[in-house]
Amino acid sequence: MTQCNLFSFQFQPHNNKEVISNFDGGHITSDAGAVLLRELEKKTKILEKFAGCFTDHRNQDKIEHTVLEMISQRIYGLILGYEDLNDHDQLRNDVLLSLLSGKKDLTGQNRRRERDKGYALAGKSTLNRLELTPFEADTKSRYKKIVFDENKINDLFMGLFLDSHNKAPKEIILDCDATDDPLHGNQEGRFFHGYYHCYCYMPLYIFAGDHLLCSRLRPSNIDACDGVLDDLSRIVKQTRTRWPQVKIIVRGDAGFCREEIMKWCEDNRVCYILGLSKNERLKRKIAKQMEHSRRKYLTTGKSRRSYRNFQYKTLKSWSVKRRVVGKAEYLEKGSNPRFVVTNLSKKEWPTRKLYEELYCARGDMENRIKEQQLDLFADRTSTALMRSNQLRLYFSSIAYIISSTFRKIALKTGAFAKLQCAGIRNKLFKIGALIKISCRRVMIYFAGGYPYKTQFIQAYNNLIYCRC
Prior knowledge:
With 468 residues, the protein is an alpha+beta fold. The chain has helices spanning 35-44, 46-51, 67-79, 88-91, 95-101, 124-132, 150-163, 228-242, 259-267, 280-285, 287-300, 351-359, 363-375, 386-410, 421-429, 453-465, and strands at residues 3-4, 8-14, 17-22, 28-29, 54-56, 146-148, 171-178, 181-182, 191-193, 198-201, 204-208, 211-216, 247-252, 271-276, 304-312, 322-331, 334-335, 338-342, 433-437, 442-446. The longest helix is centred in the C-terminal third of the chain and has 25 residues, at 386-410.
């Protein structure tokens, strides 16, 4: 019979040979490819800059884990697929993660307390105190003394975006979107949302291409656009300080089609294209186009669409008439009218091109949000307090920024250029390896059967020779 005990596992024999395994292999890791991330950090210093957004009120003579080391451990853990703090009670003796986190004592043999020897990294309790520190903590606080500054983190997101360009672009598009973050406990700020049919948060995201500029955790008992003007005004101001002549376009779905947002854009020389909820007045505007699409569908059996450009003003909420583009689409299931409102000129953006090339491209932002929530655990907001859940969202956001930067620099060419975060993790970072440590070197022996050696070498060369 197959047997196992605390120390070894006996499997079915192979050619009359016993097959036995245990966890006594020494310094072996399953994440050896993540050493590439260390090279990226040395060039970009993203984590070092992020650590600068924290104030450490601890007695520096008595600490064993710096803010940078703990943050690195936590964020690299997310990138490698370890979303839970409990995971770090085992990971704290992982030599590879110690190397990534910048620990001098990779094996933890020089820890002060005997019970900590052999564990170089912080455990779950230490990391938990980092997350749960209140904003009013100071040197007199007993345990939780590391405070993050939201304004500095927001400025960091913008700084990383601006610094990623060698020269000012002619145009940037700011994609705004809100999504649901389901909750399964009695967290602060928890409300039931009728559209999503669950208790949840409703975080706000703002992207410029695949650059994350804002990730704001919010309760769900608010309008989808609540607070977006504060973040947009900050982002636009910082952008124009660096790039005075850049053209800025704000793009979003119907949840952001509000008079105050459009009026602000018009007053601040910001262009916008926003989804517009359909109503009977709007449907009548494209009735002829819809009938034309219906007839074409009945003739060909294929979905058909046509467009109309017109001026429109609501009965009460809008202060002026605005350009609206209506899509009259007829599908197998019937009519599918859609509308967008914009202050972009028809000369610059003709009707069909405006909708199909500019507005529909906002769907790619949803892929970026999915990367963060599904691959980097942005929805792991399970602490009791909203502030600590916001910090977890920031951790996930920095993990996304690192992964996205890695994709641009290390994977800019080749078959892996469009891999999402989970694909990068599984194909490049999840490599089994034996690690040997001597007085002079740390040797990492990758598994000989690793199938993506060519892509790994290419990523390594791109990192080594890039000028970030």
